[in-house]
Amino acid sequence: MNNASNQRPKWRWLRILGTAITCLAILGASAAAVVVINKTEPTAQQINATRKSSALVNTIVAERGSYAPQLVVLGTVEAARDITLSPRVSGQVVELSKDFLPGGMVREGELLLRIDPADFENAVSISNSELLQKEATWEIEQARQRLAVKELEMLESTIKNTNRSLVLREPQIASIKAEIAAAKAALARAQLDLDRTEVIAPFDAQILSRSVNIGSQVGPGDELGRLIGLDEYWIMAAVPVRNLRWVQFPEAAEEERMVDGEDLGSDTFAEDANGFQDGMVEGSRVLLRDPDAWGPDVTREGRVERMIGTLDQQTRLARVLITVNDPLGRESDLPPLILDTLIETRIEGRMIEDVVRLPREFVRDKDTVWVMKDEKLEIRDTEVIFRDAEYAYIRSGVDAGDEIVTTTLATVATGVGLRKITNDAEDDDDAKDAESEETTE
Fold it and tell me: Pairing between strand 376-381 and 225-229?
């Protein structure tokens, strides 16, 4: 029994020793594997690769010339002639024209309404009777004067010169003449009041409103209706002050009178039917658009007439007056203008000489332009002297014949390789593949 107990510790130590040897063997094998892997790993080598591909772009050729910018602003339609009718005599309205109603069209001189003329006709009759009475008295007085002349011839030696005018009834004659003149004036006034019972259109007009009806009692100062002229409308356009120098006003044409420093004077030029003188420059041409009322493709024309001398208090914009003839399209197939509406006005400005005109989207940040030269990108700084709604007008930085890059590039840097897109099948494939070639140094 003692022998068995002595054998157990020996086996325990043998197992521990075997486990330790096994662990050491595994660790040694692992270390050997790491060494072998490190020795057989390929060595990394640094290479330099150069990009050989070129970006495919579209271009346009810059052209230098003279262009008229387009100033696109909003304007308000107003009537050139706008009046409120009032009667000049008192009375009752007894007749109305069938055209005297809102929206009606009337011609100059057309009767709009009539005030009861009975009292005024009676006044004319009375004034005429008084005039006839004064004229009859004048005839009688003339007969008396002729008789006095004959009596004076018989009593010439006994009548003093101081009493001569009394004998010839000259004071009575003068009094009768004054009474006749007053009677004629009274008759003319009565006739004028009678004529004023008829209210007529002062010009070709459209009726905007009517404030009376048959039976209405009216008097001087009362409103009968509102009329606007048909021959011309105004458009009051709001233009930024910085853009006024590009607008051509008719007054600027006065400079055309100066030849070699000499003023030729206004008599040198004959006026045409529009009131412009031969050799004078009209105001800027204006294209009008109202897509909501007329449709997207319909336009009308107007002319810049003058500048209003004050700024709008709210917008701080200058106000430019534009005139439009035949605003209601009575003499043409053009659509009518509607009063008080906002309308798009495209003012054709003064010519800008010797500039390159490019679409605004091709002028990049900080007024730079991308130019393709020798198949490389150049970023040019430019001098943009004006921008309208569509174009930028460039004075310097771009020359005629330069190829302007219109394609948006992901990488923008001077010297980037460029290649124009063409319609060839091979180039189209290149554009789709966008392959890159690399060279290892």
Answer: unpaired
pLDDT classification of 343: cutoffs 50, 70, 90: very high
Task: Kindly indicate the confidence band of residue 431, based on its pLDDT and cuts at 50, 70 and 90.
Answer: very low
Residue 206 reports pLDDT greater than 80: yes
Q: What was the pLDDT predicted at 93?
A: 95
Distance separating alpha carbons of residues 276 and 326, to the nearest angstrom: 18
Summary mean pLDDT of the chain: 81
End-to-end CA separation in angstroms for the chain: 85
CA 176 to chain centre: 66
365-388 burial code (b ≥16 CB/10 A, e <16): eeeebbbbeeeebbbbebebebeb
For the whole model, what pTM was predicted?
A: 0.66
Q: What is d(CA 112, CA 199) in angstroms, rounded to the nearest whole number?
A: 6
Asked if 63 contacts 339 with a C-beta cutoff of 8 angstroms, the reply is no
- The pLDDT value given to residue 41: 57
More confident site: 261 or 18: 18
The Cα–Cα gap between 322 and 307 comes to 9
What is the pLDDT at residue 36? 65
- CA torsion angle for 380, 386, 390, 392 (degrees, to 10)? -10
Cα separation, 188 vs 177, whole angstroms: 17
**Which string of b and e fits 403-429 if b means at least 16 CB within 10 Å?**
bbbeeeeeeeeeebebeeeeeeeeeee
User: Which residues, other chains included, contact 214 with Cβ-Cβ below 8 Å and sequence gap of 6+?
Assistant: 93, 94, 95, 96
